[in-house]
Amino acid sequence: MHFLYPAFLFALLSLAIPILVHLFNFRRYQKVYFSNVQFLKEIRNNNHHAGI
To answer: Which pLDDT does position 22 carry in this prediction?
Structure first.
């Protein structure tokens, strides 16, 4: 098999590698619970109900 532009295949592979790394990024994010999150939710709900 003879390719007309073999450098095109190399460029395509070079572009595909970062895309594949991005798609198969299996890092798991951990939830970090802060002590004041419930307090902030209450403030947001109070402001929402007060019409602010």
So the answer is: 83
